[in-house]
């Protein structure tokens, strides 16, 4: 850690600005793709003369609505992060974005595994290629680009699967219990064609859990790689005094330049420093807060 030039302090600030820029770009791409997907869905349904209620039968439609909401919610945080050089994303919003990504990824998986072998046009023909391939892949990549400091637990993976589970239950009732001949839905995803839906849907749930686990695992690997890149810029033999000076300077920087009514503590940075230099996290927190308060006082003098 080179405290004499304050390089690390500025580097840490730049990291959060970069995170915000990446999040803004990624979520804008996700928002555009999901919006276009919904427009294509509406066009397809209107051409075929379907009723508006049929618009919400398809998991593709509902997944893209979920992604439009998730992306729209994150974009203001990204813009705020660029302005304040501090990207902070609430845990509930990270999980919401994760849930939407799981759903949209399953659109791709279902289209490729269950639909493509039997109906190529419905899977990837014309606009369906954008709906079932381009949009899911773009959103999946976007999710992996948005850095999150949260480690998702198994319970939270199941929580994020709730939208898919609800849809699966409704689909089971409409297709297997009510049936198309009695006003239910056609088996458009062919889950009841070769084996009963009550067998194929539980298998699908297990597959969704596996996919969700892989998505989060990749995200964790990428986040750890980014953290290692950040740690590589710090001097290995810095003593505790140097580290505390740098953390104090980081707090002072945010105190001088941030909105005093909307300041946050970069616990992710403090935790990384604490682990890297085997220093007490509470002590680093106190040093940071002292710098933050002194920065605010200096600005107001």
Compact overview of the structure:
This protein is 74% helix and 0% strand. It is built from eleven helices and no strands.
Characterization of this structure:
- The protein is built from 11 helices and no strands.
- By secondary structure, it is mainly α.
- The two termini are 31 Å apart.
- It is elongated, with a radius of gyration of 24 Å.
Which features does this protein show?
mainly alpha, 11 helices, 301 residues
Topology:
Layout: H1 7-47, H2 59-84, H3 91-115, H4 120-124, H5 127-145, H6 154-160, H7 162-178, H8 197-231, H9 240-257, H10 267-277, H11 281-300
Number of helices: 11
Q: Which quaternary structure do these chains form? A: single chain
Q: How much of the polypeptide forms β-strand, as a percent range?
A: under 5%
Give the terminus-to-terminus CA distance: 31 Å
Biggest sheet character: none
Tell the overall outline. Answer: elongated
Give the helix proportion (percent range).
over 70%
What is Rg?
A: 24 Å
Structural class: mainly alpha
The overall pLDDT, averaged over residues, is 83
Order of helices and strands: HHHHHHHHHHH
